[in-house]
Amino acid sequence: MKMLDLIEKKQQHIELTQTEIEWLIENYTNETIPDYQMSAFLMAVYFQGMTEQEAGYMTMAMAQSGDMLDLSAIEGIKVDKHSTGGVGDTTTLILGPLVASLNVPVAKMSGRGLGHTGGTIDKLESIPGFDTEIAQEKFIELVNQNKLSVVGQTGNLTPADKKIYALRDVSGSVQSIPLIASSIMSKKIASGADAIVLDVKVGDGAFMKTVKDARDLAQTMVRIGNQVGRKTLAVLSAMDQPLGFAVGNNLEVIEAIETLQGNGPEDLTELCLVLGANMLIANGYTDNFDQARTDLEAQLHNGQAFEKFGEFIESQGGNSDYIRDVSKFSTARYQIPVVASESGYVSDWVAHEVGEVARMLGAGRLSLTDEIDPAVGIVLTKKVGDSVQEGDTLAVIHSNQEDITKEMARMQEAVTIDNQQIQPSLIIDMIE
User: Fold this and answer.
1) 187 catalytic residue (yes or no)
2) Residue of 81, 116, 162, 168 marked catalytic
3) What is the pLDDT of residues 160-205, one digit of tens each?
4) Of 40-49, 198-207, 386-395, which gets the smallest average pLDDT?
5) Is 116 an active-site residue?
6) 83, 149, 183, 315: which one is catalytic?
7) What is the pLDDT of residue 27?
8) Which class for 289: exposed (0-12), middle (13-18), buried (19 or more C-beta within 10 A)?
9) How far is Cα 390 from Cα 282, in angstroms, rounded to an integer?
10) Which of 161, 204, 267, 373 is catalytic?
């Protein structure tokens, strides 16, 4: 088999076989195929696309290129949730204990934040003592015992995807739906889940900017998942403004705790209930969405979801005193208000810009070696659709540096106040 033949077949829009795709991934991973040839292949895919069958073969080949977690020792149907990334997205911290409190096993591998989006592992590690690097045997034991464990990704999970993603990033082939879909799904499958719920973000603060592209991606991932034997569902959710009020590690953990106590922001709570209901359906707990949602709402208000969160934190070495008393979390030296310059209604909060300001403050990274400051971030006090008077506080910047002239300017540019009230959307579609 020759790489040039595969490149030319794909340029001519000819479907590749499973054997050809497996050979391609294996030989690129072991560095037999050079970067320049793989770049040519990826660009051919960018222009010619892939069939769902091809994308499924590529997904499994990348999943099998490194460690494949065997979670068969975990009792029941293990369900995982994946978000395509956003600003203020604390859903994993809420959904894990919420779904697990109904005895549905959640075995999740998560990553660190990069750029303007926050990482689940960074947020969990802001709780003193919490250990995200536990052995696989312990991970399985905790899920069987508590129905929940969250750990960091292993070093040898989907090495083919890591190499291909890095090449896509520098070769102009990032925005290819089959390549995005196979990248995401290969990691989920290698992580050992039986069922997967995808939260595909749409809008300014998301990777996918249009509903059409987000729906195409979601449908492709759902079909790939089902094709390779994983029950897969997807939710399209809006990410034009930050989710909830808090952006920043400690601030988001505190907001997640409040949500688990039934006192969270309306949009964050709503998204968690919709995603959680889909997780219950994917698990087989019920096939009735309304019943699933009702059961989850009860867990938020009867204290069981919050108790499960405390149990989860303690089981991985975290200090649960912080969960019972959030005033123990470190706070930034300065809390500086962002003030409205006119009266009207908030019509836009540019999510990407808010996330960038949080990163500038130290809540995010430009590279994975950057240090995170867990105390800094932003708390919105007004969301899209809210009325404001000139001089009202729109947000509070939590900073450990006194001079935030640049950050303040970007926050002022990120918000729009208009005369007409807008009702923001949140759940755009659900795909199965």
Assistant:
1) yes
2) 168
3) 998 998 898 788 888 899 999 999 999 999 999 899 999 999 998 8
4) 198-207
5) no
6) 183
7) 97
8) middle
9) 48
10) 161
Provide the pLDDT confidence category of residue 114 given band limits of 50, 70 and 90.
low
Q: Is 215 marked active-site? A: no
**Alpha carbons 79 and 158: distance in angstroms, whole number:** 19
pLDDT at residue 206 in the model: 83
- The pLDDT value given to residue 113: 62
Identify the active-site residue in 81, 82, 230, 365: 82
The string of DSSP letters for 105-150 reads -EEEEE---BBTB--HHHHHTTSTT--S---HHHHHHHHHHHSEEE
176 is catalytic: no
Selecting among 187, 231, 293, 365, the annotated active-site residue is 187
Q: Is 161 a catalytic residue?
A: yes
- d(CA 106, CA 70) in angstroms, rounded, equals 14
Tell me the C-alpha distance between 151 and 139, whole Å. 8
Bridge partners of residue 397, in order along the sequence: 336, 378
Q: Model pTM?
A: 0.93
**Mean pLDDT score across all residues of the chain:** 94
